[in-house]
Amino acid sequence: MTASDPALFAPPPGSRPPVDAPARPERLRPGARVAVVAPSGPVPEERLRAGLDILRGWGLDPVVAPHVLDTHPTLDHLAGADRDRARDLTEAYCDPEVSAVLCARGGFGAQRMVDLVDWRAIREAGPKAFVGYSDITVLHEAFAVRAGFATLHGPMVAAGTFLSDARTQESLRATLFEPESVRRLGLDTARTLVPGRARGVTLGGCVSLLAADLGTPGARPSARGGLLLVEDVGEEPYRLDRILTQLLRSGWLDGVAGIALGSWAECGPYEGIRAVLADRLGGLGVPVVEELGFGHGETALTLPLGVPAVLDTDGNTLTLDAPALR
Question: Which residue out of 99, 208, 231, 290 is catalytically annotated?
Answer without folding.
Answer: 231
